[in-house]
Amino acid sequence: MTRALHTIGGQQVDPASSAWLEIMEPATGAAYGMLASGNATDVESAVNAAETALPIWTAMGPGERAACIHRLADAVEAELESLARMESIDNGKPIALARTMDIPRAVANLRFFADAALTDRQEEYTTGDVAMNTVLRDPIGVVGVISPWNLPLYLFTWKIAPALAAGNTVIAKPSELTPVTATRLGELSAECGMPPGVLNIVHGTGAAVGEAMVAHPRIKAISFTGGTATGARISAAAAPHFKKLSLELGGKNPNIIFDDADLDTALETSLRSSFANQGQICLCGSRILAHRAVLPQVVDAMVHGAQQLRIGDPLDEQTQQGALVSSDHRDKVAACVARASDEGGQVRCGGRHATDLPERCANGYFYEPTVITGLPIDAHTNMEEIFGPVVTITPFDDEDQAIAMANATDYGLSASVWTTDTDRAARVARRIEAGTVWVNCWLLRDLRVPFGGIKNSGVGREGGEEAMRFFTEAKTICTARSSG
Ligand code: NAD
């Protein structure tokens, strides 16, 4: 049985409370390991270790810190295949996806921010002949990162890498549903010579560990990715501590297909943007808005495409749709589809637990890719995040209506626009309320660009310089040019 321990002060550590959680394999519905169930005592130990490590990490300077993070990237890359397998077992995602997306992206995150550590961020401003202002970007100190289960190592490293590169020491909490690759990352950090206490990983629930981190007075910043309701709780809990916060939250992203779109590409990509990772990517386009002239083709292609997707054992190389992350989550998705029917939606395909599976997966959390039509844009199903393999298709008649529909939810994470008219693409992209708008593409991510959401999809930006700014404090030194 896998045992996932905390990494605190460079050691693999049992939970202070001696309590353990089960680690479930979504594909089988069976427990396959035990997870340290942390609490405030473990968080306290991790903060002490991080504070002890801070002067050592600071003294190393950017060059040595960058080299250390690169060594960690090398170590992850060297274990790409076994980490992909771990991720697939732990999360239920197809191993081919973990191998080609999750783990390579974790390596890229570490390398990108290791290099970012080397950039000189000092700014200078001359105030006439009166003064010289020097702006420094100092590390914050001990910072916390909290991440979700959908892209476990990918999002964990997306936060840890800039925090470390900026010179902070870190307390990191992965999701209790997918702790295994994070545990290995902790072991690898020690093996590759990262000083003890620089990266501490504390496992456990949000209520026990996450809340203790947010409330801890010596953790000066929290970078959180997860659900919008959790983000609201974290905001409220962090406010009295004047804690720096970055919140990357939920989405209900529109995918707008105009009648002049290159339909083959649009539909092929829409199938991916609806169902990749079983629809459990915050950037999935869960609302397809189709111009009425192409609605029949869009519906036919999406239904046909969804029915062709191979649902199966995530460890099977041919599998395109794995298991949902938990039985609770599958029940939530099923309840959302039932509500869509109650709202008058037509379930054109899917809408059921998947059953045609290998024996090993008989009790796994599989759900068929589901396409729903016939719902008004303000139906709950079109307003609230489902975060599963469920997409709605809604027709529109003109550009203004498409934009109004796209902006009709409380979310504003991302959108896709499909059109061959470049003027229209530019017009529509500017008017959509979202942190990222993709034109004729989806999920193309340049790590240098700001990433985040507006409205209820988040506060602040990550990625590139934005992440380095978040994990540093600006300090201005204003020096008079003459002593008078
Ligand atoms: P979640 O909010 O339930 O949990 C996320 C993390 O927060 C977990 O580690 C959890 O243990 C912890 N947590 C829970 N309650 C907490 C609390 N009170 N205080 C501190 N920490 C707490 O989210 P999830 O179900 O793991 O992930 C799915 C959600 O994440 C979806 O809404 C999805 O859209 C969102 N997400 C957003 C992005 C983005 O970049 N915007 C990326 C991926 C996922």
Describe the structure.
Helix 8 links the parallel strand 13 and strand 14. This protein has two domains: 269 residues, Aldehyde Dehydrogenase, Chain A, domain 1, CATH 3.40.605; 186 residues, Aldehyde Dehydrogenase, Chain A, domain 2 (3-Layer(aba) Sandwich), CATH 3.40.309. A seven-stranded mixed sheet has the order 15-16-17-14-13-19-20, sandwiched between helices. Helix content is 40%, strand content 22%. It contains 14 helices and 23 strands. Helix 2 crosses helix 3. The mean pLDDT is 97. The chain is α/β, with parallel strands linked by helices and 484 residues long. The chain starts with a strand and ends with a strand. It is globular, with a radius of gyration of 23 Å. The structure holds nicotinamide-adenine-dinucleotide (NAD). Nicotinamide-adenine-dinucleotide (NAD) binds next to helix 6 and helix 7.
